[in-house]
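EI: anyone free to look at a 263-residue chain?
SC: sure, send it
EI:
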Amino acid sequence: MRVAIYQGPAAPGTKAHMLDALRQAAEQAHGADLLVLPELFLTGYNIPPDQLRAAAEPADGPASKAATQIARTHNMALLYGYPEQGAEGALHNSAVLIGPDGHIQANYRKTHLFGDMERAIFTPGTQPAVLATIAGIKIGVLICYDVEFPEMVRGLALRGADLVAVPTALMQPYHFIPQTMVRTRAFENQVFLAYANRTGTEGDMHYVGESCIVAPDGAFLARAEATETLISAELDMVQAANSRSLNTYLADRLPAHYIEPAP
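SC: here you go
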């Protein structure tokens, strides 16, 4: 599988503008099986709550229908973040995975909400493990802060994920996360990890960029700097199997020793 990440655009726009950016990124990523885009890609992340609510759609809303045409045209799976209109007025920070045939393969609602801003507007998701299969590769989906909880990636790995794809909106000063933590998550769970960040400045937030694709041995397969760009890498499943035979964390687990104390 070839995975691509679009780190951009530098400034958010209307949904029509962002869908056009998605279309251009898919054209640039020609030959990729999966294109991963940032958290809340369709709207921007650090925007007023009323704008997020106004732009919210169901998973199969108009923007998704437009994205399905892009997926079909390029025979490419797409994963991007958007504000999801849930039941009874709930708003979710979500990511939708559309297959190359244009069908929705998965929709994930962010479980761990970050900071007062997110907690004030979004309702957290309750489904901790969302998986789908694209091009024979089992893909788990998380969003931003979720990947910073080791249990989330471990849960996906135990359910057979080969790749964990993470749309994110990581701001300064948290360079440590793409530089070190993401590599650790890949290594300790023996999975590929695709971390797709935003770039530029949005309000008072300065995004660090540094999107990356990491192998199960913790090595960077592709890595962005801070500016708008597209990166890609081939996921070598033979290399992954070799790494797993050497680093047997999942097989060596002792779950009886990991019981958490009662609250």
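EI: The chain has a mean pLDDT of 96.
SC: 👍
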